[in-house]
């Protein structure tokens, strides 16, 4: 009989399983592990970390969040975009910013109230995992934001930028 090894994703999910938790909590952690794996291996993110407690209040989050550093800037604020155009700076020349990622499943229902619960418990910029990186992120324009990672039944993951409040539209 052939002994088959579990896939890398299965191994990651098993290793990140919380102990003594409800089925719903285990599902949230498995979803976070799946999104983290996608960010790391498909989108080349670095400095990834799963957060289960608020960096502000140190209380449990309603579900795990991920923070990390994408390979390029995910969002450019409209005011910053105008400055970049005036100074002839390309988006590829702007350093990336750490981002929050909220793993969700397509069948989950999200209301403004639930988003507010998440935004109330996070800082504008996620904490830096590797302090030896010798970099501090300044406060960024536009306030709090996160990437909503929506996982479909076929494991496809779609990412949406969600802001805490209204942001003026970009210039095209």
Give the overall average pLDDT.
84
- Global Rg: 17 Å
Tally of extended strands? 5
List the helices and strands in order: HHEEHEHEE
How much of the polypeptide forms β-strand, as a percent range? 15-25%
Distance between the termini: 61 Å
Largest sheet: 5 strands, mixed
Low-confidence stretches: 132-136
What is the overall silhouette? globular
Give the % helix. 25-40%
Structural class category? alpha+beta
Number of helices: 4
Task: Summarize this entry quickly.
With 172 residues, the chain is an alpha+beta fold. The protein has 4 helices and 5 strands. The chain has a 5-stranded mixed β-sheet with strand order 1-2-3-4-5, sandwiched between helices.
Task: Write up what this structure looks like.
The chain is globular and about 65 Å long. Strands 1-2-3-4-5 form a 5-stranded mixed sheet, with helices on both faces. Helix 4 links the parallel strand 3 (99-105) and strand 4. Helix 1 (8-15) crosses helix 2 (23-42). The protein is built from 4 helices and 5 strands. The chain is an alpha+beta fold. The chain has helices spanning 8-15, 23-42, 78-86, 112-120; strands at 46-53, 60-69, 99-105, 145-151, 157-163.
Task: List key phrases describing it.
alpha+beta, 4 helices, 5 strands, five-stranded mixed β-sheet, 172 residues
Q: How is the topology of this model organized?
A:
Layout: H1 8-15, H2 23-42, E1 46-53, E2 60-69, H3 78-86, E3 99-105, H4 112-120, E4 145-151, E5 157-163
Parallel strand pairs: 3-4
Antiparallel strand pairs: 1-2, 2-3, 4-5
